[in-house]
Amino acid sequence: MNTDFPYRISGQGRTASAEGDAYVRDLIEQVLFTSPGERVNRPTFGSGLLRLVFEPNSEPLASSTQLAVQGALQQWLADYILVEAVRVQSQEAALEVTVQYVVRRTQERRVERFERSL
């Protein structure tokens, strides 16, 4: 059983689970929106994406953030996905991340959009 993210209780009163594409999407979301140092037993886990909110918007910052996010996804999810492209946009009080990847298990190409309001 693959636990759903964010953690919640299902209608049957058990830990909710996610299967297939939903599980892979949940894994990507965890890497994107976890800051390094946030997990006690995995201090390097995460992408550092949320610190973008405190930086001035610029082309070099966007490029370096995209590379850092892509590197984090490759480091932590290489067994699950092949990352093809990452696009990060900061718009007012929200971050929008688009990830294009191939699911290794099925060889299916997917594009997912993640948004976090801050």
Task: Explain the overall architecture.
The chain is an alpha+beta fold. The chain has a single domain, classed as Nuclear Transport Factor 2, Chain: A, CATH 3.10.450. Helices cover 28% and strands 26% of the residues. It is built from 2 helices and 3 strands. The chain has a 3-stranded antiparallel β-sheet, covered by helices on one side. β2 and β3 form a beta hairpin. α1 packs across α2. It is globular, with a radius of gyration of 15 Å. Pfam families: GPW_gp25. This is IraD/Gp25-like domain-containing protein. InterPro entries: IraD/Gp25-like (IPR007048).
The average pLDDT is 81
One letter per element, helices H and strands E, the order comes to HHEEE
Beta-strand residue percentage:
25-35%
The major β-sheet equals: 3 strands, antiparallel
CATH first level:
Alpha Beta
Assigned CATH architecture: Roll
Q: Enumerate the strands of the largest sheet in spatial order, edge to edge or round the barrel.
A: 1-2-3
The number of domains: 1
The CA-CA distance between the termini, in Å, is 31 Å
Helix vs. strand class:
alpha+beta
> What is the helical fraction, as a range of percent?
25-40%
Helix segment count?
Answer: 2
Radius of gyration: 15 Å
CATH fold-level name? Nuclear Transport Factor 2, Chain: A
